[in-house]
Amino acid sequence: MREISYSLTFFLFLVSFATSSASSPQCHTNEITEKIVQQRDLFNKAIKEADADAIAAILSESVILVTGSDSVLFTGKQAQLDIWQSDFDKGDERDIYLRTTQCVTISNLGFLAMEYGEWKGSRGDNLLFSGSYSAKWRFNNASQSWLLEAEIYMTDFVK
């Protein structure tokens, strides 16, 4: 448990440092950013269609998720697949999350990127939650695709 606490503290420090030391992200528009937005669109589609296999194809093995309201930390692909499957098992009573990319910044290293955007959680036609998020992506040579490494969410609105 202490290891997770240290990991979360370090992760939050990095996010805080990155956001406070940079004035604002320089958004890029190119073939790489288009591929990342396509991956985000595939993730959104997989959530809507309750397709855990499609989600698995987008997540890195060591992916990190920090939730919006209560900052619960989920570490690893299987942990995240378990929460998605638990949500999918609710059928029509489940929440659908839609993330909308506003900006993608590509690292000078070329194989890392940050995505910034807004998210919404709804059930049917009812908006329940919304906020902002940041996500880190890494190009995976084996799969020749961009994989999600980390996401951190902040909730701005709760119905």
TrEMBL record:
Span of domain DUF4440: 37-140
Pfam short name (any one): DUF4440
Keywords attached to this entry: Signal
Stretch forming the signal peptide: 1-21
Taxonomic superkingdom: Bacteria
Keyword Hydrolase: no
Name of the protein in question: DUF4440 domain-containing protein
